[in-house]
């Protein structure tokens, strides 16, 4: 749940202030991934009394004398709190040190990190970059978790290392120094390369990680490697044909050219898109080394002594800079809610053809899916809810039993999964630890694994046998909104593709495909309820609790609506299956507790009408969501508040119905004065169990 970023300029003069701003901006883009502390490392001036970290009264002593003569210990700045508090503290420290911000570097390597604490409280000493020791000989920023750090720490302590932080990360730079010192003591200066040090470190590490290394022994070089967590390399060539728009660009071309360029590493594309569209999704066990403006990639293999060199093609990013900016909106969540007519259009683009659905990533596996004994949806949070919304339609069209699994619960129970199963993994980020662990479990049990994700190149996308990208665009608000509706639409399209061989359901399928084409327009209509939902939020601002009842297709809407309210508005809220009302929840009903009942027109409508009557009879404080024109039939005496929404095909109605709930959660949050985009205690992707 952290963000890592690095910036290396080569053969192009960049002032220190510019470098700092690129690093800060990278962190701002990644802040949604974690925001309790952050840090950066940049170069000091060549070795001088200033460079030898006088901030801590530390002259580096013997350690400093081991650095190359033209090298100085890099400067590390770390701070607790959001990125802006790091920015303030860096500028004030730089000022106190009299460091020249206008100094120009023709080549420079800087690294940065935004943290979401897992090991150790948020504090400067637990923030990254973590260091090998006094002279910052090796510095590391890390996303993920090192599972064997305790053993490594004990060994390093036995070799005389002292630890300052409570993090799992600190073992990595210290291990790098240990490997480096050992090689140098045994074989003398210049014998060990930076990539040899890093591959040896990788050999010792267990867990999931993406790492970027900077070292005073290898000035102006950077190394990035990963296992599990996502890591991207961005390449911006500054010569004549910049961002040439060529479809593919070989990394090989970057192995021997001295052209001016800027190179970036980032834990996701959001921090890269404003600089370049040429990128490479680094694969597991690859070690990407930038030196003298060249990029070389080694593939690390446990069995082999020496990693092999590999060639990779750069891809062209299909994302616009606007996606990562708020534009005229106050918050990303607000922007992403209002973007849904567009994101849904993108999700469906090129996939609905002549009354049929074409899903390129699935077509070779449809036969296997149709023959599976069971389809299992697996996900967490909002992604689970999206799958729940799609479940009835998939059951109806495929005729195959569809079961639901929360990834963590499946793992806790080690629930049975068989070769004859199709397991569909749903994850916006494609990085959620529980979902990925469940994926490994299902792969181990021989199931066909299908991925539904928003993140091209994510672990989920790479580890599944096949899948569909939801193409909702970058989602930055921590509360998932547009990804949810795009996930439902993708799973509805999957159901249509899986059921496409059945004559008996042809008319139904065609009606749904027409409904899909119309959906963005209907979503634009329901967004007009914005003002009404703001008024409703005003009336609920001081309530302690909110219940949401749904059933059938809209059981998911109840769960997801309640999840939105609790996660951003920090108000207790529960989504409940209306069919369960009489089995307990009815006891809660009184004149004060607000209850939202989803009663749009579908096969469950009359049952929801009777739920409304029963709640009414107990003087419940009711808010009813119904289809346009149904207000009087759901609320005959005008005694409850009504939200009227456009009616669409039953299986697509959850896409419409969630939108007033998203708007309600958004306005409640703003009115209650909470942070919309970065809610308390939450981060966008949950990369630890
Ligand atoms: C809520 C939310 C979370 C995520 C969950 C899974 O708004 O965003 O509930 O849905 O953490 O994340 P992904 O979809 O990235 O696997």
From TrEMBL:
InterPro entries: GATase_2_dom (IPR017932), GFAT (IPR005855), GFAT_N (IPR047084), GlmS/AgaS_SIS (IPR035466), GlmS/FrlB_SIS (IPR035490), Ntn_hydrolases_N (IPR029055), SIS_dom (IPR001347), SIS_dom_sf (IPR046348)
Entry annotated with the keyword Zinc: no
GO biological processes: fructose 6-phosphate metabolic process; protein N-linked glycosylation; UDP-N-acetylglucosamine metabolic process
Major enzyme class: transferase
Segments forming domain Glutamine amidotransferase type-2: 2-293
UniProt xrefs under PROSITE patterns: GATASE_TYPE_2, SIS
Catalytic activity as recorded in UniProt: D-fructose 6-phosphate + L-glutamine = D-glucosamine 6-phosphate + L-glutamate
Pathway this chain belongs to: Nucleotide-sugar biosynthesis; UDP-N-acetyl-alpha-D-glucosamine biosynthesis; alpha-D-glucosamine 6-phosphate from D-fructose 6-phosphate: step 1/1
EC number(s) on file: 2.6.1.16
Domain SIS: 365-505, 536-679
Keywords for this protein: Aminotransferase, Glutamine amidotransferase, Repeat, Transferase
Gene Ontology terms, MF aspect: carbohydrate derivative binding; glutamine-fructose-6-phosphate transaminase (isomerizing) activity
Protein's recorded name: glutamine--fructose-6-phosphate transaminase (isomerizing)
């Amino acid at each position: 749940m952290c963000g890592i970023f690095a910036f290396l300029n080569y053969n192009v003069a960049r002032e220190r202030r510019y470098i700092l701003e690129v690093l800060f901006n990278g962190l701002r883009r990644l802040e949604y991934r974690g925001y309790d502390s952050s840090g950066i490392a940049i170069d000091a001036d060549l070795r001088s009394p200033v460079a030898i970290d006088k901030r801590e009264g530390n002259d580096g002593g013997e350690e400093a004398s081991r650095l190359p003569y033209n090298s100085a210990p890099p400067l590390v700045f770390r701070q607790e709190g959001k990125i802006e508090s790091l920015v303030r503290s860096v500028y004030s420290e730089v000022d106190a040190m009299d460091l020249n911000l206008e100094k120009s570097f023709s080549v420079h390597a800087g690294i940065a990190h935004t943290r979401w604490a897992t090991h150790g409280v948020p504090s400067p000493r637990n923030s990254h970059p973590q260091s090998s020791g006094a002279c910052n000989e090796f510095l590391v920023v890390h996303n993920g978790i090192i599972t064997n750090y305790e053993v490594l720490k004990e060994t390093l302590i036995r070799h005389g290392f002292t630890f300052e932080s409570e993090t799992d990360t600190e073992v990595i730079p210290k291990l790098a120094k240990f490997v480096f010192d050992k090689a140098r003591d045994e074989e003398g200066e210049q014998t060990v390369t930076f990539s040899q040090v890093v591959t040896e470190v990788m050999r010792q590490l267990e867990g999931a990680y993406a790492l970027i290394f900077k070292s005073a022994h290898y000035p102006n070089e950077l190394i990035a490697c990963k296992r599990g967590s996502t890591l991207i390399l961005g390449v911006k060539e500054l010569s004549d044909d910049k961002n040439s728009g060529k479809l593919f660009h070989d990394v090989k071309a970057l192995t021997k050219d001295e052209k001016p360029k800027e190179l970036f590493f980032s834990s996701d594309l959001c921090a890269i898109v404003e600089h370049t569209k040429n990128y490479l999704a680094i694969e597991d066990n690859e070690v990407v080394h930038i030196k003298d403006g060249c990029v070389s990639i080694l593939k690390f293999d446990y069995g082999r002594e020496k990693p092999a060199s590999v060639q990779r093609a750069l891809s062209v990013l299909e994302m616009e800079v606007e996606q990562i900016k708020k534009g005229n909106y106050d918050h990303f969540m607000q922007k992403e809610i209002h973007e849904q007519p567009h994101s849904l259009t993108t999700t469906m683009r090129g996939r609905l053809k002549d009354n049929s659905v074409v899903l390129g990533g699935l077509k070779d596996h449809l036969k296997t899916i149709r023959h599976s004994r069971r389809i299992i949806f697996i996900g967490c949070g909002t992604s689970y809810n999206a799958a729940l919304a799609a479940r009835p339609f998939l059951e109806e069209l495929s005729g195959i039993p569809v079961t639901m699994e929360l990834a963590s619960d499946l793992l806790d129970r080690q629930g049975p999964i068989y070769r004859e199963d199709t397991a569909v993994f749903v994850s916006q980020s494609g990085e959620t630890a529980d979902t990925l662990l469940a994926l490994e479990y299902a792969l181990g049990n021989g199931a066909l694994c299908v991925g539904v994700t928003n993140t091209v190149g994510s672990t989920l996308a790479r580890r599944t046998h096949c899948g569909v990208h939801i193409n909702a665009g970058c989602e930055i608000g921590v509360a998932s909104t547009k990804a949810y509706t795009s996930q439902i639409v993708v799973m509805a399209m999957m159901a249509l593709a899986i059921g496409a061989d059945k004559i008996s359901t042809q008319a139904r399928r065609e009606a749904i495909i027409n409904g899909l084409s119309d959906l963005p327009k209907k979503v634009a209509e329901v967004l007009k309820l914005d003002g009404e939902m703001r008024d409703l939020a005003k009336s609920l601002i001081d309530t302690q609790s909110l219940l949401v009842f749904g059933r059938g297709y809209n059981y998911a809407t109840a769960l997801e609506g309640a999840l939105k309210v609790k996660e951003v508005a920090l108000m207790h809220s529960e989504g409940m299956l209306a069919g369960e009302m009489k089995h307990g929840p009815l006891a809660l009903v009184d004149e004060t507790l607000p209850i939202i009942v989803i009663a749009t027109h579908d096969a469950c409508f009359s049952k929801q009408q009777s739920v409304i009557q029963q709640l009414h009879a107990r003087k419940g404080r009711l808010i009813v969501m119904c289809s346009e024109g149904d207000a009087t039939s759901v609320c005959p005496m005008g005694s409850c508040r009504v939200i009227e929404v456009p009616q669409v095909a039953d299986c697509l109605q959850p896409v419409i119905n969630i939108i007033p709930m998203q708007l309600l959660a958004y306005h409640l949050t703003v009115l209650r004065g909470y942070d919309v985009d970065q809610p308390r205690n939450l981060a966008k992707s949950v990369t630890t169990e």
